[in-house]
Amino acid sequence: MAESSSEDDLLLPPVPLATGGAVHVGGSGRRVARVELVVSTEDGEELRIPLERHHGAWWPPRERTAPPAGVSTDRVPPADHPHPEG
Fold first, then answer.
1. 75 in a domain, yes or no?
2. How far apart, in whole angstroms, are the C-alpha atoms of residue 75 and residue 67?
3. Residue 23, class by beta-carbon neighbours within 10 Å (0-12 exposed, 13-18 middle, 19+ buried)?
């Protein structure tokens, strides 16, 4: 098994991974109660990462995200409103 380092840890983007609140199962609509990302390891184990619902979208938990390169962690502007300083 390969050694793990913090540089190699699985990180998720700090963006919503899904939107919406309903799915169609067997021809009928159902409300979504939970969304999870399932990660399978090379030894067959599974890690379930529950996403968090905020503002109509499903986001990765904060402890699993990393800020984009060059962006301060104390202020990340929305994608449609770039930071005024460039």
1. no
2. 10
3. exposed
The answer as to whether 85 is a domain residue is no
Taking phi over 0 as left and psi of -120 to 50 as alpha, with beta for the rest, 70 belongs to left
Structural contact between residues 17 and 59, judged by C-beta atoms closer than 8 angstroms: yes
Rounded-to-integer distance, Cα 78 and Cα 22, Å:
25
| The pTM of the whole model exceeds 0.70 | no
Answer whether 38's CB lies under 8 Å from 48's CB: yes
- What is the pLDDT averaged over residues 8-21? 89
Does 84 fall in a domain?
no
Alpha helices in the chain (DSSP H): none
Q: CB burial class (10 A; 0-12, 13-18, 19+) of residue 79?
A: exposed
